[in-house]
Design goal:
The complex is a heterodimer of chains A (about 450) and B (about 500).
Chain A: H1 9-19, H2 49-61, E1 71-72, H3 85-91, H4 94-97, H5 109-126, E2 130-131, H6 138-153, E3 157-161, H7 166-179, E4 182-186, E5 188-189, E6 192-193, E7 211-216, H8 227-236, E8 239-244, E9 262-266, E10 282-286, E11 299-303, E12 309-313, H9 320-323, H10 336-373, E13 379-380, E14 389-393, H11 398-407, E15 410-411, E16 414-415, E17 426-430, H12 437-450
Parallel strand pairs in A: 1-15, 3-4, 3-7, 7-8, 8-9
Antiparallel strand pairs in A: 2-10, 5-6, 9-10, 11-12, 13-14, 14-17, 16-17
Helix pairs in contact in A: 3-10, 5-10, 6-7, 10-12
Chain B: H1 45-48, H2 66-77, H3 100-106, H4 109-112, H5 124-141, E1 145-147, H6 153-170, E2 177-181, H7 187-194, E3 198-202, H8 212-218, E4 223-229, H9 241-250, E5 254-259, H10 271-274, E6 278-281, H11 283-286, E7 301-303, E8 315-318, E9 329-332, H12 348-383, E10 389-390, E11 400-403, H13 405-411, H14 415-423, E12 431-432, E13 441-444, H15 452-471, H16 473-477, H17 490-495
Parallel strand pairs in B: 2-3, 2-4, 4-5, 5-6
Antiparallel strand pairs in B: 1-7, 6-7, 8-9, 10-11, 11-13, 12-13
The chains are: A alpha/beta (about 450), B alpha/beta (about 500).
Chain lengths: ~450, ~500
Amino acid sequence: MTTYIPHTGEDVADMLSFLGLASVDDLFEAVPDALRLAGGLGLPPGRGEPDVLAELEELAAANRARTDRMVCFAGAGAYDHEIPAVTRALAGRSEFVTSYTPYQPEVAQGVLQAVFEFQTMVARLAGLPIANASLYDGASAVVEAVNLGVAASGRPVVWLSQGVHPHWRATAATAAAGTGHDLRTFPLADGVTAWPDPSAPGVPGDDPPGVVVVAYPNYLGCLEDLAPARAWCDRTGAVLVVVADPVAAGLLRSGGDWGADVVVGEGQAFGTPLGFGGPYLGLFATTQDHLRRLPGRLVGETVDTEGRRAYVTTLRTREQDIRREKATSNVCTNQTLMAVTAAIQLGWLGTSGLVELGRRCAVATRVTRDALLAIDGVEPYASAPVVREFAVRTPVPAAVLLERLAGEGFLGGVALGEEFPGGEHALLVAVTERRTRAEVDAFVAAVARAVT
Amino acid sequence: MSAPGGRATSAPLLGRDEEPTIFELSKAGRRAWSFRTGGFPETDVEDLVPALHRRPDPVDLPEVSERDLVAHVTRLSSRQFSVDLGAYPLGSCTMKYNPKMCDAVAALPGLAGVHPAAPASTVQGWLALLVELEEALCAITGMAGATLQPAAGAAGELTGLLLMRAWHEAQGRPRHTVIIPDSAHGTNPASVTLGGYQVVTVASDERGCVDMAALHRVLDDDVAGIMLTNPNTLGLFEEDIAEIAAAVHGVGGLLYYDGANLNAILGVVRPGDMGFDIVHMNLHKTFATPHGGGGPGAGPVAVAERLLPFLPGPRPVRVAGGDGDGLAYDWQVPSRSIGRVHGWHGNALVLARALAYIRANGADGLRRVAETAVLNANWLRHRLSGVLDVAYDRPCMHEVVFSAQRLRRAYGVKASDVGKRLLEYGFHAPTVAFPLVVDEALMVEPTETESPETLEALAAALEAIVSEAADDASVVTGAPTSTPVGRVDEARAARRLVATFDARPPAGD
């Protein structure tokens, strides 16, 4: 077996003797005999590291859908972007990997400054002045934004566009069982949210929204005019939450520019591997007005006793360890390593790299979409403009199509699913900057074969 | 005696200059990025994005060479304490050594390169891994099934409370309060609020455990349940746990186990056997997944049989004999699921690391983890008796809470000062000023991976600091002076908030 315990037998004997104990069992005197586990844990005995690695490698080998074996056209909030060696090397430094929450700022300036730089970059992407130190993922960022919005507006009614990722809406619905928030989803029509007609009688009635949540681009990859959502917020005093894709944000108007009060998103695209869905990175930015309601950690700049620039977690009175049941959120451990990773990746990209990343995604997306739509029986799912992802109707069920494509070495996308009208015959396709023309051509040819 | 492996005073921290931000290192036109050759036509952004949606100016990001990026981030890393550098006795956080083998597992292309929405038929390895981890965690906790979705301990707590809520609603008797001891972590009451319940606090008695008389006074049929950490945040085992369980179950409530301190009891006693109905685990504590500077963690929640139908979904399941599609593993949504609590399947790469750690240790090794963690804490408690006051003078479990109350009264030296001074002896500070029920608390959790030599060096350092407090308190209250920065002005950070580079006042202000 493997052990990470340094104690020799003699060490243990000496320590027990120091304590006046006869055996290690005596250490657990406080545990009532009746409760103690008899016979040990029902687990196999420990094994050497090479054996464990071999076991895990075998499990890994049983995954066919891996980006080094299958060309990835799947997205839906998780994207196959370039992770350069420099990001892997720096983000893997054990000083970042094996530290904890910076409770002692004097010996945590590394993480604190990296997070400060991350907050600056996220705020600039969002077009808002404040960004927190991260949340778990895009879904948790939506939940926290809804909680902030309800607290700020004092109204529990939440209008959600169907264009917000279905899993994120589902997570918000789970949380609403505890908070009592009243979530109402407004469907997409031809790729854009069908908000209620403001001139219709009885709208919004006597229970106007406290929060309006809309995605940009939305789940179908479509760009929608956010002015109607903003107008509803202006009319009702609701908080506008824009769920923005941070890669597309390199090309698109920022949430702040559209008048968002909160911008949230999924930051996995910046240096974090697909990793079967986690750990990812929840992005959260807001305005000065909502500073005191910000969930989770925030790093601020200050000085030390000698007047040197220093960083520290700040406005801590919002947080759970101080405010307890009155805290703005229960989040404690967040996704700091992913935030540091994103700051490194955005430093690697820089101003020009982010634009080029977005442009390459958009070009490859357009070429792929046009080519797929040229296949007999493949039709557009929506006509609204797209930049990095799109949905098409397929003549065979999407699940069947995906199995056929997997057999040809392609992870062909994500089935849209029954929540969307005709969604079982629709495929969501994402094309990142990692896709080449040759891969796209081969993919399109495989789709053409698979649908006939 | 061997030299202590966990003392970090030889770390070569060069110089005491400020590290510029990456924004200050930026120079227009520099770049580090490069992409694959795509072979697509060169199309302008204007042709790709309609005017209504186009960003007028690019996002202002730092423009640096790869060399400067590496130097900057490497220098930042040298301004950071970590487990890999030295002992990190931060109570309640279980900052044990994080095996590198587990990092190698998380980097396997067959795990790291897998899209979370890939069809079940193409991710059988991942599904098997998750099922095996769930089974192992249930064996360790004595529970019937688990969800692996919660991304951290607090997310696990909220999941557990929502399970509690769903259970009571299904019984047709919604309740309104959840009992929490006054020694509990702050996440507990914050999660209770988010779960739609009111917090009822129950006091600790002179033993440092739940006051049974106080508990009986607050128990009624409006109590949804109780949240307990056992051993509790004072490092003490709740000896009356069987009686507590009977009393809470007696009014129809459920018992929630906060797994923050699970490391102390691995293979010794299981939460399920103590009577708990819902258990969350912090894999980043007990199962050695690295803390990442404050995450990612993973907070799976295991439940008793009667709560299985309410677990979040979809769940990875083993399919006996293969399902209709011939798959050995598939996704399944429990019949009365509370729904999703994560965007995908949880912090999967953290989960993979935890399984590797469990496999390497095995049943015997995990028991030895608990034994050694408790041995180390008790050795420190005994070694430092007479040096520092022990808050509750009785054998502890994996952590021991000292009080610096006497140092404050005699010399004006607070627990936080002791922690700051300890940094200069090459150790991370203990948790200070928590739990709240102890005045000037110093909560020390050595973990099982620190050697006796490191423990002795840590004890000697604390002993020296107590002497310094008596001789010249300013040495302690002025510490640290040898770290990259001295004490930071936390009040100023809050008063004049600068939370981004762009909010920084102009030079000279």
